[in-house]
Amino acid sequence: MMSSRTEHSTSRDGTGSSGVPGAAATRPGEGIDERFDRHLDGLFTYCLSVLCAHETAVGVVREVLDLAARKHGRAPQDEEDRLAWLYALARWVCLRRLTATRGHSEEGAREESEQGRERRRELARLAWPEAAGTSPEQREALELAVRHGLSPLQVASVIGLEATAARELLAAAACEVERTRVALGVAASGGCPVAARYAGDRRIPLGSALRGELVRHVDECPRCRRTAERAGAAEPWPGTAVTPDALPVLTAPRAEILARPAVAPPRRRRSPAQPRLDRRGFPMDARERAARRDRLRSRAVTTTVVATVVAAPLLA
């Protein structure tokens, strides 16, 4: 799924081979730093699946590389944690881009050129019909676990959840994927003409509404239910396996990424273009920061109340 190359030696203070702290991930005439290049296919695929726009995804990947180079001193030393850290940075940049462009189409009109058709084929490779019934949160966790091969602990680090909550999220999502897969299998078997009509027209993507109708029909139709029970007898217990299938990871357009100008660091330390990192070096999203402010505010109020109560007898 991901290209595997020998990892570039990096000192503990976050300097690259140049010995300069926060050295750029790419330089004119050079390739992408091997610290990041080995994970570039996965990062590009992730960004494209979130943004659904090739040019935007290329620009975001370049921004992620430069951000990772600047923040490398805060990166975890453990290889698995460092991979989750890269995906967390990519997620932060993607969410910031989505917020900035909400309500606007960055790719413009639908291109009918060969390049436009290739872009649509690229996105079509990321389709996952069995995941049509999952919530956005479940789908995000599933993509990281299945397509990108992250462990539940890594998924938790990327999306900012406790490990137990991430496992529960993945288990619930796996149940929905299994229900959809069984329903699609029943429809494809041809045993029920009504179910076959749901999956008959491949030109219509299996959205959440159509998926809901199909699953509901399989649950209510006696013939379909018997077919589903026979198929389910050989399957793992629901929720214990996410999926046996490997999802494709696209090859990152390295030349396009290298051609993008480096993203200069913001002048202000607390710029919106600069992520706030937690103690482990992972970026905090706006909801996490708001919750942290609420906790600090509550702690300050509690301290004030306690101090007032303690001081009251002395002032009397």
Which stretches are poorly predicted, pLDDT < 50 over at least 5 residues? 1-23, 289-295
By DSSP (H or I, 4+ residues per run), the number of helices equals: 13
* Biggest sheet descriptor: none
The gross shape turns out to be globular
| N/C terminus separation | 72 Å
Q: Would you tell me the structural class of the helices and strands?
A: mainly alpha
Radius of gyration: 24 Å
How many β strands by DSSP? 0
The percentage of residues in β strands lies in under 5%
Q: If you average the pLDDT, what whole number results? A: 78
H/E element sequence: HHHHHHHHHHHHH
Helix content: 55-70%
Question: How would you sum up this structure, described in words?
Answer:
- By secondary structure, the protein is mostly helical.
- Helix content is 58%, strand content 0%.
- It is built from 13 helices and no strands.
- It is globular and about 65 Å long.
- The relative contact order is 0.12.
Which descriptors would you attach to this protein?
316 residues, 0% strand, mainly alpha, globular, 13 helices
Describe the structure concisely for a colleague.
The chain has 316 residues and is mainly alpha-helical.
Write the layout of secondary structure elements.
Blueprint: H1 34-37, H2 40-51, H3 54-70, H4 79-100, H5 114-124, H6 136-147, H7 152-159, H8 163-189, H9 193-200, H10 208-220, H11 222-233, H12 254-259, H13 286-315
